[in-house]
Design goal:
The chain has 613 residues and is an alpha+beta fold. The chain has 2 domains: 231 residues, Alpha-Beta Plaits, CATH 3.30.70.20; 295 residues, Formate dehydrogenase/DMSO reductase domain (Formate dehydrogenase/DMSO reductase fold). It is built from 15 helices and 12 strands. The chain has a 5-stranded antiparallel β-sheet. A 3-stranded mixed β-sheet has the order 8-1-9. A hairpin with a 4-residue loop joins strand 6 and strand 7.
Length: 613
């Protein structure tokens, strides 16, 4: 147990006030009945089997932040970091701020934020390894770094920057509510260290002394409907109509004068808007996912076309038509997907723990995606082996081999698109509006059609031409599928841009960054898609069987593939989460980029890890 000092001040102890039955979200504050078999168990803190005597041990606790009092001294950050022995580049609690007004009437509002131990912890549901647990004791959402394999998905879905991915250790860690202190009746270390009385702690919906409000939001705080966070605010000072962030995220917060006076997230546009290429910024930690998603979509589309092609009149795609080429293509697809899967593990902080991705099939979209792709991958392998090496299965009863081959093929055709649907579901995150749009699905399925068909066309055309066989019966249909995929993607992009600008907030900010910092790259991507569509339309009308036609296909394919790579890279670097405001030097993407470019990141005390993975 945590050792309580003899001279511990009274303000460090958790009070025992009158407690309501429900919180503001309608959830019961009493998490488990005192007589429940789950109650009365030890948390085994530091292998101590003792049980805390806190009378409110099974009630939901939470933080209270009084913005009127916070002076941004960062004592809470320091206390948290000291207690948890954190390196300079991690902070479970961080102080950010927004500001507004003009001199001399300038106003700044600070916000100290850690994990809010939510009623609906999306980190818990999203984690594929089940490293998270919401305990009945204090309602604490705790995470086990030893179980985590460092995918970082919890950092995507959390709107509050609570889970912290440590690129050095390759794992996620977060605020643990100082449950060891709670067990002996003490408030968390950050609260006890607060100099100005801005930060407090207790059973949720109970007011600390000298406080008047129990608000669930504050300017700069993300929507509460995502997770129903257990934090309450007080902010009574008058604020300007518009508050802006000091970090590099182009967001501002504007008060609704005609409504209840709540602040709404708006785009903060620069006075000197200029389109740039931003090519250096296209590279990100998600580069392995760029390759993984594109290859997987290509493989699924190519296999579906090869298996279903004969049913559409493409006789040259029958296994019997080209008994050497067909199995070689199947094994090439299998090899491509093997490479993609191996590369996807490089996105993990602990690649050797990849097998833990299956641990949360019930809730985590990551687990379902991995399972879906694994099923498709194995079915593809079975189909490839049965097709290429039938002599190995001569011992099977007559008719069984063809039946098993057909069953494996049809099962792969069905599970491939399902796997891509699960892949898209990973990105339908409320905390990341740029991704949370049906365009993600249209992009993934569009690439399945165009890249898969393109691959098959570029492989089979030289085979047919070298054998003196016509390609004019195959290429128009292939061009049609490619055009279908391009049209699907272009329609999705158009609606995506329209809807983001209409809805405003972080999604519109991402769209604004796409039009400015990456404006030229975005135009190049859109132009490439359009040119690819025009070229395919022209090639679809071509009936000439020649190597010149194949050269045109190679050129068109290069344009389409480059556009797809640029588009997928933009997909990852443009997203702006519904996150808490940072400060000028801390949790500021702009400062992090500057620190890496200037060499400041080499000084560990700066708190920026050199860009490596």
């Amino acid at each position: 147990m945590f050792k309580v000092r003899k001279d511990e001040p009274d303000y460090a102890f958790i009070p025992n006030p009158e407690i309501p039955e429900k919180n503001q979200y309608g959830k019961s504050i009493q998490l488990v009945d005192e007589n429940d078999p789950l109650a009365g168990k030890s948390l085994n803190i530091n292998n101590d089997s003792s049980i805390g005597e806190n009378p409110n041990r099974y009630k939901q606790h939470g933080f209270y932040f009084n913005a009127d009092n916070c002076i941004a001294c960062h004592a809470c950050e320091s206390a948290c970091s000291e207690k948890n022995d954190l390196p300079a580049h991690l902070a479970f609690r961080a102080v950010g701020y927004v500001e507004g007004g003009t001199y001399p009437n300038y106003t700044r509002i600070n916000t100290s934020m850690a994990c809010n131990h939510c009623d609906n912890p999306v980190c818990l549901k999203g984690c594929p390894t089940r490293a998270y647990t919401k305990f009945a004791e204090y309602g604490a959402v705790l995470q086990d770094p030893d179980i985590c394999f460092g995918c970082g998905y919890c950092t995507w879905v959390c709107p509050y920057n609570a889970p912290q991915l440590d690129p050095v250790k390759g794992q996620v860690e977060k605020c643990n509510m100082c449950v060891d202190r709670l067990e002996v009746g003490l408030k968390p270390a950050c609260v006890s260290a607060c100099l100005a009385g801005a930060l407090d702690f207790g059973v949720i919906e109970t007011k600390p002394e000298n406080c008047d409000q129990l608000e669930t939001t504050i300017p700069g705080f993300p929507p509460t409907d995502i997770t129903q966070p257990n934090i309450r605010f007080q902010q009574t000072r008058s604020l300007p109509r518009e508050m802006t962030r000091t970090d590099s995220i182009p967001l501002r917060y504007e008060r609704d004068e005609q409504g209840e006076g709540a602040y709404h997230t708006k785009v903060r546009k620069s006075e000197n808007e200029q389109r740039a290429w931003g090519l250096a910024k296209l590279s990100s930690r998600e580069n392995p996912l760029v390759v993984f998603t594109l290859i997987t979509q290509t493989v699924v589309g190519a296999f579906m076309l090869m298996f279903l092609g004969p049913l559409m009149g493409l006789e040259m795609l029958r296994p019997e038509a080209h008994p050497v080429t067909y199995p070689l293509v199947l094994f090439a697809l299998l090899g491509l997907e093997t490479f993609a899967l191996a590369l996807s593990t490089m996105h993990l902080g602990k690649p050797h723990r990849f097998y833990r991705a299956f641990n949360n099939l019930r809730y985590s979209p990551v687990s379902r995606e991995v399972a879906g792709i694994a099923v498709f991958y194995n079915l593809l392998g079975v189909y490839a082996v049965l097709t290429a090496l039938p002599d190995l299965f001569g011992w099977l009863p007559e008719g069984w081999l063809s039946g098993l081959t057909s069953a494996a093929g049809w099962a792969a055709v069905v599970t491939g698109p399902i796997a891509l649907y699960f892949m898209h579901a990973i990105y339908r995150i409320k905390a990341r509006p740029f991704w949370n749009h049906w365009q993600t699905l249209s992009s993934f399925f569009g690439n399945m059609f165009n890249l898969g068909s393109l691959l098959v066309a570029l492989i089979y055309t030289p085979v047919l031409l070298s054998q003196g066989l016509p390609v004019s019966t195959m290429l128009p249909l292939m061009a049609g599928f490619i055009m279908l995929g391009l049209i699907i993607e272009m329609i999705g992009l158009a609606f995506h841009a329209r809807d983001l600008n209409r809805n405003g907030g972080e999604g519109a900010a991402s769209q604004y960054v796409q039009q400015t910092d990456f404006g030229k790259s975005c135009i190049a991507r859109n132009t490439g898609l359009f040119i690819g569509l025009l070229l395919m339309a022209a090639l679809a009308l071509t009936t000439t069987d020649s190597w010149l036609v194949y050269s045109a296909w190679v050129f068109a394919g290069t344009v389409i593939v480059v556009s797809a790579i640029v588009g997928r890279a933009l997909f990852y670097v443009l997203v702006i989460p519904t996150t808490m405001p940072g400060a000028f030097f801390w949790r500021n993407k702009g400062f992090e980029e500057h620190a890496r470019e200037s060499g400041l990141a080499d000084m560990h005390q700066v708190g920026v890890v050199p860009d490596a993975h």
